[in-house]
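Need residues for this backbone.
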């Protein structure tokens, strides 16, 4: 079995992030034919889960993939308002829905935002430098962003980019490196070659920058930055919808998807101003190593809730923190069973008799914007289809089959595949020969051992830069043709 990076969704990425070997193979193909690739993509086969677990994990994953870093409150609120009927946005970007009337009066809230970055400098060469917003809960948060795709949230739209990575050809020279990256080491490439080109794109200082991650599930786990907190927001939205349909057991509940939670719940504190006295304030907190159900006296709120001090009219605050794996990393993961426990807790705290299912409320509020076509669009699409196929050294069959399928009939007939798996095509006269070479493989891993707890250890193939693989999704492939194993962080 072998491990490779996952395919990229859509066109929303920078060409600099693609696999160079696959691009060279695609470039060679462009000399032979103008037709796009027709080979089927490798299918990801999920690990076995119960009929109820996978829909739960998929729904939560769709919420995790919704990006709302500080500074995008207005855009996030607009997108969420379109996706969630019955919710309204206030001037701070909080989404609010009130159900019921009378007493007791409750507020059930989660925080939508997460630690991210802002543009702190634009270099003369067109690179973006970054500064972090908020305090990340993992000491290697900056390190996890090296060589990853990001999105820059400008006033006129979202722009794709990639964070620079050391040259893989010199990986051996860096194997003893032990210093973790900081935000000072992150350089964002958005495809510009000058500061003027960056300005033309509409990108300015202090524009937010966040990871670009697809919705990702690993068996019954939903995984991604802030998985525990996002499962909480998904539960708040689902319970609010159920309350609006079926009613509350008694009283009134105000549901709030709040902003700027990483700054001590600033968004929620603004929403509480002017509200009538509360009998209960319920908060869904970040994921933790172990599940926590707390009742915190309002006069002794911890620093993490500092913006709420003096704003809470209830005597105490109820807090639920779900148990997650890889706390605070960019592959924080929550199990479907833990999410179901969270959903039941939210329903009970909100006064809803019957907890809904997560699968009733998948989030599809953010879709990649269509990019304008140009003269090279067809060639670019060909590059991307080929680059998204796994080409682990010694296991290049998917790439080889795609290349052969994309060749015109005359070239496919004349091509031969030798015992090493190389495609060889000779044409033209026998004299003044010119050789054009391209390779189909990429740096990746093979499974070395399967541990008793179900994890695997890996053997590197090629010049793998190990830090680039920390806390990122990957695909585990079987050698059986046309299948792949479950994705894993």
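Answer:
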């Amino acid at each position: 079995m072998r491990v490779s990076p996952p395919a990229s969704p859509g066109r929303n990425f920078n060409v600099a992030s693609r696999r160079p070997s696959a691009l060279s193979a695609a470039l060679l193909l462009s000399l032979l034919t103008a037709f796009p690739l027709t080979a089927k993509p490798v299918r990801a086969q999920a690990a076995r889960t119960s009929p109820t677990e996978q829909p739960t994990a998929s729904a939560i994953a769709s919420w995790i993939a919704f990006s709302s870093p500080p500074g995008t409150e207005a855009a996030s609120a607009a997108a969420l308002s379109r996706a969630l009927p019955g919710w309204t946005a206030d001037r701070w970007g909080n989404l609010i829905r009130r159900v019921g009337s009378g007493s007791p009066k409750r507020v059930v809230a989660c925080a939508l935002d997460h630690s991210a970055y802002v543009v702190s400098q634009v270099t003369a060469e067109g690179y973006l430098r970054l500064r972090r917003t908020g305090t990340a809960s993992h000491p290697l948060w900056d390190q996890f962003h090296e060589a990853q795709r990001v999105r820059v949230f400008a006033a006129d739209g979202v722009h794709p980019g990639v964070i620079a990575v050391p040259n893989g050809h010199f990986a051996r020279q860096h194997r003893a490196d032990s210093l973790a990256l900081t935000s000072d080491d992150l350089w964002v490439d958005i495809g510009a070659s000058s500061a003027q080109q960056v300005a033309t794109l509409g990108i300015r200082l202090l524009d937010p920058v966040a990871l670009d991650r697809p919705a990702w599930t690993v068996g019954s786990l939903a995984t991604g930055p802030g998985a525990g907190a996002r499962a909480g927001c998904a539960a708040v939205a689902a319970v609010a919808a159920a309350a609006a349909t079926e009613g509350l057991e008694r009283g009134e509940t105000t549901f709030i998807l709040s902003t700027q939670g990483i700054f001590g719940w600033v968004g929620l504190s603004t929403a509480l101003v002017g509200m009538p006295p509360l009998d209960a304030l319920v908060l869904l907190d970040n994921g933790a190593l172990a599940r926590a159900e707390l009742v915190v006296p309002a006069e002794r709120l911890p620093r993490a809730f500092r913006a709420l001090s003096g704003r809470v009219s209830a005597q105490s605050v109820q807090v639920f923190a779900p148990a997650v794996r890889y706390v605070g990393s960019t592959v924080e993961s929550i199990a479907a069973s833990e999410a179901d426990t969270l959903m039941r807790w939210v329903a009970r705290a909100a006064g809803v008799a019957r907890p809904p299912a997560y699968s009733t409320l998948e989030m599809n509020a953010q879709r990649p914007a269509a990019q304008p076509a140009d003269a090279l669009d067809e060639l670019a699409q060909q590059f991307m289809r080929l680059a998204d196929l796994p080409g682990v050294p010694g296991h290049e069959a998917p790439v080889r089959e795609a290349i052969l399928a994309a060749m015109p009939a005359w070239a496919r007939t004349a091509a031969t595949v030798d015992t090493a798996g190389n495609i060889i095509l000779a044409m033209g006269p026998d004299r003044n020969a010119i050789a054009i070479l391209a390779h189909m493989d990429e740096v990746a891993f093979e499974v070395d051992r399967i541990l008793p707890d179900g994890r695997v250890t890996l053997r590197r193939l090629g010049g793998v830069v190990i830090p680039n693989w920390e806390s990122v999704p990957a695909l585990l492939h079987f050698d059986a043709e046309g299948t792949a194993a479950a994705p894993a962080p």
